[in-house]
Amino acid sequence: TAADIRCAGCGVLLQHEDASLLGYTPEKAMSREPIICQRCFRIKNYNEASGITLNQDDFLKLLTHVGSTQSLVVNIVDLFDFEGSMISGLPRFVGNNPIVLVVNKIDLLPKVTNYNRIVNWVQRQAKEAGLKVVEVVLCSAKKNMGFERVIEVLDQHRHGRDIYVVGATNVGKSTLINRLIRDYSDLDAELTTSQYPGTTLDLVRIPLDDGSSIIDTPGIVYKHRLTELVNKKDLMKLMPAGPIKPVVFQLNEKQTIFFGSLARFDFIQGERQSFTFYVSNAVTAHRTKLERADALYDEHKGELLSPPVKADLDELPKLTKHAIRIPKGSDVDVSISGLGWIKVNSQAGAELAIHAPKGVKVAVRESLI
Length: 369
Ligand code: GDP
Hints:
Blueprint: H1 38-46, H2 56-67, E1 71-78, H3 82-85, H4 90-94, E2 99-104, H5 115-128, E3 135-138, H6 147-158, E4 162-167, H7 173-184, E5 192-195, E6 202-207, E7 213-216, H8 226-229, H9 232-238, E8 247-251, E9 255-259, E10 263-269, E11 273-279, E12 285-289, H10 290-300, H11 310-313, E13 319-326, E14 330-336, E15 340-346, E16 350-357, E17 362-366
Parallel strand pairs: 1-2, 1-4, 2-3, 4-7
Antiparallel strand pairs: 5-6, 6-7, 8-11, 9-10, 9-12, 10-16, 11-15, 13-16, 14-15, 14-17
The protein binds guanosine-5'-diphosphate (GDP).
């Protein structure tokens, strides 16, 4: 057991019970030497995604390095922030290497979801973004869904090559790789790190049972994702704790919905219609009249309208307005990177506006659900 044993890295008392608390280490790791907590393990071996900020330049160098190898590229994206977590220009940088697109966090979709539909949707979105992939796989690294298929697909497309795993931060790359290590790695083999040209950042080579290896790379921070702009406390609120419970609002024109002080949805003009909000329930929605919205925000931001709380409001860029016209007969989502999306299935069309912190990506796409 972990009783009385301290981490050789940071000195914290080890425990096996709660992975979210300090000192957590899986029981299996107790046979490794030196015995360290999971946090130290991840810092040591993974450049701890949340702690490392890889800028665009270094990230592109990294991808170019991947392009100079003969490998299989696994790009992990987050289904809850699909547009925001896509790596633009990926195929250009990784050259002729095949790309497998692993779409994580499918546990956030409603239980009744038709996964084939989602795969087709992802394929169309990827194609539209100019990303040619050999395969799309859905999974949940956290809930262990679709993992067998991930392994199958990797085996199928690897042809003996190394696998480079790339992704933006917070997409679940560490969770997925930890699962690969737990289930498939050769725990006796050394994890080795190697530097890639022109930077001091480490790539982590993880040997698997079958003699192949997987190479983990640092994640890229995209400032166009709301999840990268908020603090840790609000980040937990932005990410749904379980399957998203969509909220339907029947709105008349000239009505506004606030999402805390994080974003605002204006229904400016159109027939009375319903809008379905796919946003974490920890972010409180507040309805008001459009004409009242500016004053309400000024009076109640950080209080009635939270998260964030008042003290954290200054960290967030000011809200900026995106005008959106929904044509007649549309079935689309308006996505706000990191916050979620609003499904608009509109016979009559609508004139909308989204107010989001400056820099946050707002996009209209074919509806996901
Ligand atoms: P990384 O920055 O890409 O390495 O991402 P992490 O593995 O650290 O995960 C980022 C956050 O997403 C953490 O809060 C994870 O618990 C969460 N997460 C990872 N995988 C999943 C998943 O499959 N489903 C859900 N709902 N959350 C996930």
